[in-house]
Amino acid sequence: MATTTDTNNYKFNHSMLRVKDPKASLKFYELLGMSLVKHLQFPEAKFDLYFLGYDSPQALSHGNSTFDRQGVIELTHNYGTEADPNYKVNNGNAEPHRGFGHVCISVDHINAACKRIEDAGYKFQKKLTDGRMKNIAFALDPDGYWVEIISRKKGSKGAEDPEEQGVETDPKTYRMNHTMIRVKDAEKSLKWYQDVLGMKLFRTVEQPAAKFNLYFLGYPGDQGIPEDGFTADYEGLLELTWNYGTEKDENFKYHDGNSEPQGFGHICVSVDNLDAACARFETQNVNWKKRLTDGRMRNVAFLLDPDGYWVEIVQNERFSGQDNF
Fold first, then answer.
1. Are 72 and 16 in contact (CB under 8 A)?
2. Are 194 and 219 in contact (CB under 8 A)?
3. How many CA atoms within 13 Å lie on the side-chain side of 7?
4. How many secondary structure helices (H) and strands (E) does the chain include?
5. 68 torsion bin: left (phi>0), alpha (psi -120 to 50), beta (else)
6. pLDDT of 19-61, one tens digit each?
7. Edge-to-edge strand list for the sheet holding 200-207
8. How many Cα neighbours within 13 Å face the side chain of 15?
């Protein structure tokens, strides 16, 4: 394994969500076409981790090891929450605990995909036909996390698209497209994710009338950066949402998901050489939540982004030739 690190080899591996009942959550995400690619059990610490990703032959990460993927969702279950009638996660979208916003899947036929989810008994924060934006929907997972649904078809009109009528959907073709977090200062966050983590800016959506901008970042990999800005065919992108003016408010702060009430936990980047990557981060004067040498787990580190969100750093197993866990 190389003793240097190259951010071109990095991957936005997963996003972690705490869940109340893993059986209910697995059923939902498997309905969306995801497969359980790894299950880690820590009975002495009383929690389990479930890593879900798209793994059909059409999937971009098909057949890859767990940490050599993008667009993975990690579900964390702390034993006993499923039997606690008072346990409820913070989904990141209710004041005063906003921060994390949603995960997003891109689908082949959005009308049919949404109907299939609704027919299975799941609720929606926003149906395709709600509001002015007829080409996106938001389903609710069993814990109330928002799951955005967008079309992989360029120019899709969604609910008003005649080509979306009378067709069936195939979950094997879906992508875990992006994870959205809200940021206080877009300039600082864009600089951090590009300079520190080596991500590239794929697309910017400016909404001055509504006073917010969206920035989509990721690792180009073999696909490269889309010339036309169409990103629905990608997996493992990070969407930063910036609401104008928050950067000017000294007291403004988003909720990181790890202080009470908890919900979203972290995003994770896998790297080619864990020691070399962490040494590089040291030279950039990053804020650490956990260095490699801290605690008992010497194979994970956690950085803090400008908003205090946790960013886990792990070894990509393709470069080390051995499992992390």
1. no
2. no
3. 14
4. 5, 16
5. alpha
6. 999 999 999 999 999 999 999 999 999 999 999 999 999 999 9
7. 124-126, 137-140, 146-151, 100-107, 175-183, 237-243, 212-218, 200-207
8. 24
Supply 139's token pair: 């389903």
Q: How many residues are listed for the chain in this entry?
A: 325
Return the minimum-mean-pLDDT range out of 44-48, 154-158, 200-204: 154-158
Reply yes or no on whether 148 is catalytic.
yes
Catalytic option among 74, 148, 235, 239: 148
pTM: 0.97
**Residue 291: count of CB within 10 angstroms of its CB:** 14
Half-sphere exposure of 309 (CA within 13 A, CB side): 29
Q: Which residue has the tokens 């990703």?
A: 53
Burial 155-167 (b: 16+ CB within 10 A, else e): ebebbebeebeee
